[in-house]
Amino acid sequence: MLELKNICFKRDNKQILDHISFTIDDNKLIVITGPNGGGKSTLAKIIMGIEKPDSGEIILNGENITNLSITDRAKNGIGFAFQQPVKFKGITVYDLISLSLGKKIKFSEACNYLSAVGLCPRDYMNREVNASLSGGELKRIELATVVARKSSLTIFDEPEAGIDLWSFSSLIDVFTNMKKEISGSIVIISHQERILNIADKIILISNGKIKESGSKEEILPRLLNNTKSCKFLKEDNNG
Amino acid sequence: MDRKLNHLEKFMLKKISDIDDFPSGAFNIRENGKGIRRNTTKNINIVSKEDKQGIDIFIKENTKNEMVHIPVILTESGFTDIVYNDFYIGKNADVTIVAGCGIHNDSCETSEHDGIHRFFLEEGAKVKYIEKHYGDGEGTGKRILNPQTIIELKDGSSLEMETVQIKGVDNAIRQTSGKLGNETNLVITEKIMTHGAQFARTEFDVVLDGKNASTHVISRAVAKDASKQEFVSKIEGNTECYGHVECDAIIMDHATVKAIPEILANNIDARLIHEATIGKIAGEQMTKLMTLGLSDKEAESEIINGFLK
Ligand SMILES: Nc1ncnc2c1ncn2[C@@H]1O[C@H](COP(=O)(O)OP(=O)(O)OP(=O)(O)O)[C@@H](O)[C@H]1O
Ligand SMILES: [Mg+2]
Question: Does residue B103 fall inside a structural domain?
Answer without folding.
Answer: yes
